[in-house]
Amino acid sequence: MRRSFVRWRLLGLALSCVALSAAVRADGPLHALWELHGKHNTVYILGSIHVLRPSDYPLAPAVLNAYGNANSLFMEVNLAELDPQLMQTELLASARLPEGKTLPAIMGDARYKRAQALAQEVGIDIGIFDAFAPWFAAEAISQLQLQQLGFQPKSGVEMFFLDRARADGKSVAGLETVHDQIALFDALSMDEQADYLISSLEEAHDLPKEVTAMVHAWASGDTQWFADQLKSEIGRDPVLYDSVLVARNRKWVPKIEALLNDDKNYLVIVGTAHLVGQGSVIALLKKDGIAAAQR
After folding, report:
1. What is the pLDDT of residues 47-97, one digit of tens each?
2. Structural domain of 88
3. Overall number of domains in the chain
4. Which of 48, 176, 191, 261 could be stapled to 180 by a disulfide with Cβ–Cβ 3.0 to 4.6 Å?
């Protein structure tokens, strides 16, 4: 398992891909923004990067206009309802290994020593994660690296628009729950998780360059960049690709289609990787006869 799984989960990356869906490209600059039309309303779908740097703002006028035209927001998870303390408690409880098990024992001596050495190269003591599952160690280390690069969850696209929605009195809803997202990791075998941790650490030195390229691609609406990355990484594992991306897209699409029957406008915000490629939200909508124009 490759590091791209971490990248897509954290940067919204949240983990779609093999071939590009037919996005409608107009003259002028593009954004990770699509527009659908119902009989009486418009639904905007915005690709997100879940963590950004303050310097990545302001957002493009087209994106801000989509929010301004929307009466309500949908996100992967309804952040307005989340209690950060309870969420952290649930996450740690899920990530903590059963009594008598440790990260060194799960990984085996050779893999653990390898992880130890790689973590030290980026200034992290892997031992602080000895009571936790490998997936959690990989995610936490990536989070630490991103913070060192200036990326902040509070500067992510969702938080930016959540703050605006609260101030403007707009309603917020979710397409899935935190439980659904944690279950994606719980479903991985310990051996898969151990390999995932190792591969994450092996590619840690490339993270600064990769996230810079990703933010640039996102800001310029470069869906081909995302498709190429996914094709070379997670697209090679059909089972992972389906569980992390396509299965979730299939659950979301009926909810998005139902919004087109309303008379209110909506802004739907999901990880950008869910919006490009085979099995993406955009491709599934097209299959159902609903055209989405990239703006």
Report:
1. 999 889 999 999 999 999 999 999 999 999 998 888 888 888 888 899 999
2. 4-94+151-184+207-294
3. 1
4. 176
